[in-house]
Amino acid sequence: MDMKSIAKVLLASMALLPFAQLIAQDEKDFSLTPLTDDLYHFRGGTGGNHFGTVLVTDEGIVVVDTVEPKSARWLKDELARRFDQPVKYVVFSHSHYDHIGGSNLFKEAGAIIVAQENAEAEILEEERTQQWLSKRDIALPEIAFGDKFIIKIGGKTVNLISLGPGHTESLIVVHFVEDRVIHLVDVASIKQVGFMTLGRPIKQYILQLQKAMALDFDVVVPGHAELGNRQDVQNYIDYLTALVSQVESSIKDGKTLEETQQSLLVSMQDFKFLKRWDEWFLLNVAGVYVQIADGSAGD
Q1: φ, ψ for residue 172 (rounded to 5)?
Q2: Is the CATH number of domain 3-294 3.60.15.10?
Q3: Quick one: which H or E segment has residue 33?
Q4: How do residues 185-238 score in pLDDT, each as one tens digit?
Q5: Would you list the domain boundaries of the chain?
Q6: DSSP string spanning 38-65?
Q7: 110 pLDDT band (50/70/90 cuts)?
């Protein structure tokens, strides 16, 4: 099967997504719930399927990912209602518009925007982010760092660590040291298989995940899935590693996409405990197959 035919298969498969997943995008469900005494899990975005993290101290508040404008307005009002502290810092996990929308609301109120040094260029290059930027819904970073930046506030340490190239050049992991929590978005699909056809370059995703695993944490806050722990992150690394390896072997053996999908349905049964297997596993296989075949999977 040539690459054009494979692309048609991917598009056809994506069209089969349940209608309920589409209509769910019209619903909103925002919340701010405690993870520890001073760390909170922020839920917002389309269908309540985007997540941020908020640290509240007696020296001010740190927000990681404002998500999108409506969510950001709700969060700003909620923080003002519940806590008598200003937002000192807003941290971007990376440059994608659905994680940093509404950030300008906090900047206008005095917060400092912090991001990895590649974020600004990516924001200015991405069309959807540009649209929100033109509406003053997104703020550009005021502090840009390379490999690492440390925020010390209210007796707490927040380490911002670049994960290198992969899911954007600006992706970071945010480590709340004393709370033993990390905020790790988009590369980490917690307790489920990856989203649809996965991102690229998939091998770089694995390296980013492995770098995050080197940190000392108990809880992971992903960008689009439920909370998890160290083992959940390791499970996803193991899943992606097996997926890439088996697809590579299948292509070397001359198997088509369909043959590879049917083969891996059997050989990867050990990972069937992951949620959304029936919805997305074959799409995961197809996405990796295309990347391996066209050389875009990374090193």
Answers
A1: -125, 165
A2: yes
A3: strand 31-34
A4: 999 999 999 999 999 999 999 999 999 999 999 999 999 989 999 999 999 999
A5: 3-294
A6: SEEEEEESGGG-EEEEEEEETTEEEEE-
A7: very high
